[in-house]
Design brief:
Number of strands: 0
Structural class: mainly alpha
Order of helices and strands: HHHHHHHHHHH
CATH architecture of one domain: Orthogonal Bundle
CATH superfamily of one domain: Hypothetical protein af1432
Largest sheet: none
CATH topology of one domain: Hypothetical protein af1432
Radius of gyration: 17 Å
Helix content: 55-70%
CATH class of one domain: Mainly Alpha
Number of helices: 11
């Protein structure tokens, strides 16, 4: 299941450079993200692609699906909580315990890129648990690492939790991000780099700054 398409996002830079009091904060937010992936994006966390490729493939899938800016950004940044929690160290089993990367990422992203981006990221793990609960075939098709982390993340949902999640605002957005998340693990897929998403992140950061100032 995916969120209803809202037209492909505009990935071209704005013709007029942003200006005003929120410009520096927006630029800083975008640079923070780029720096994190530059420094720590080589980690694989047990998957066949590193975090840099995983993020870019998820965003590319969102663009291909006609997702709006907020979901393109959420797809790109859904696992940023892993990077915020530290480097992927050799010999450390990252599948054994839940690092709550969705909560860590959501707290970081909300003030910088807005509540819709943050919400989709916050819910993408419970979306995985939901999909595995209602669709056993989806569960069986998960990557080995994703199957292992599912256990650490709490496993399948009970009937009450399924019903609550279905009533949660942003339910469909979270399912869309989760869908792109699982598909974004192809070591041969070629996609655009982070520069292609700077305009999207910049627009969202400036909007978030304007909203908080207002």
């Amino acid at each position: 299941m995916t969120a209803a398409p809202a037209g492909p996002p505009d990935l071209t830079p704005a013709t007029t450079p942003p200006s005003g009091p929120d410009t520096d904060a927006a630029t800083d937010a975008v640079h923070e993200v780029l720096d994190l992936f530059d420094r720590l994006g080589d980690g694989t966390y047990g998957e066949v692609v590193d975090q840099r490729r995983h993020a870019l493939q998820a965003a590319d899938l969102a663009v291909a699906g006609g997702a709006p800016d907020v979901l393109v950004a959420a797809a790109l940044l859904h696992d940023i909580g892993h990077l915020l929690s530290g480097p992927d160290l050799p010999g450390v089993d990252r599948t054994a315990e839940d690092d709550r990367h969705e909560a860590v990422g959501a707290r970081f992203l909300g003030p910088r890129f807005g509540p819709e981006v943050s919400r989709a990221v916050a819910l993408h793990v419970v979306a995985k648990r939901y999909r595995c609960t209602v669709d056993p075939d989806y569960h069986r098709a998960l990557s080995p690492t994703s199957q292992a982390t599912l256990v650490a993340q709490g496993g399948l949902l009970d009937a009450d939790a399924v019903a609550r999640f279905e009533r949660t605002p942003g339910f469909l957005d979270a399912l869309a991000v989760r869908e792109w998340d699982e598909e974004a693990k192809d070591p041969t897929r070629r996609v655009a780099g982070f520069d292609a998403y700077v305009p999207v992140l910049d627009r969202l950061a400036r909007t978030a700054g304007a909203d908080s100032a207002g």
